[in-house]
Amino acid sequence: MSFSMPARYERVREAGRLVDCAVLVAVGITRDGHRRVLGVSVALSEAEVHWRAFLDSLIRRGLKGVRLIVSDDHAGLKAARRATLPSVPWQRCQFHLQQNAQAYVTRLDQRKPVAQRIRSIFNAPDGLRPSAC
Questions:
Q1: Which of 21, 70, 74, 100 has the fewest other C-beta atoms within 10 Å?
Q2: Residue 14, CA distances (Å) to 10, 18, 27, 38, 133 in order
Q3: Domain residue spans in the chain?
Q4: What is the third-level CATH fold of 2-92?
């Protein structure tokens, strides 16, 4: 099973005030491409301590058979992954990689052609392309 680990920030009410919290998500992707939400956690941030507690909780609940982790390049997540699932290979998410690459394209008229070329690499038929988030 591949394992995608996105996070997003949402405004939540805590002690009568609105605060931004990280919603940590673990999505398993089976060999036949079906996605399964394995867990969700609301944390104060994406710091290592929060990702690590989330991963530890998944392992305690029986998470096993993870063959690949796909995520963005967040330092807290990477450190937690190395601490909890050190033998599982990691791969950068296509979406975030392309988004970060676009930041280096300074000429606006070149952004679309560069994005198309990057997508053509991801969609290469040889089966060695990166996985999506």
A1: 100
A2: 12, 6, 27, 25, 29
A3: 2-92, 93-133
A4: Nucleotidyltransferase; domain 5 (3.30.420)
The beta strands (E) that lie in 1-133 are given as: 2-4, 7-14, 17-29, 35-43, 68-71, 90-92
The one-letter code for the residue type at 98 is Q
User: What pLDDT does residue 79 have?
Assistant: 95
Closest residue by Cα to residue 5 from 35, 44, 49: 35
**What is the spatial distance between Cα 28 and Cα 30, in angstroms, rounded to a whole number?**
6
Predicted TM-score of the model (pTM): 0.77
**Contact, 102 vs 113, CB < 8 A?**
no
Exposed, middle or buried, 133 (CB in 10 Å: 0-12/13-18/19+)?
middle
Higher-pLDDT residue of 31, 84: 84
Q: Identify the helix (H) or strand (E) that includes residue 59.
A: helix 48-60
- For residue 14, the cross-strand partners are 17
Residue whose pair of structure tokens reads 């998410």 in the numeric block: 93
Tell me the two tokens of residue 42: 């609301």
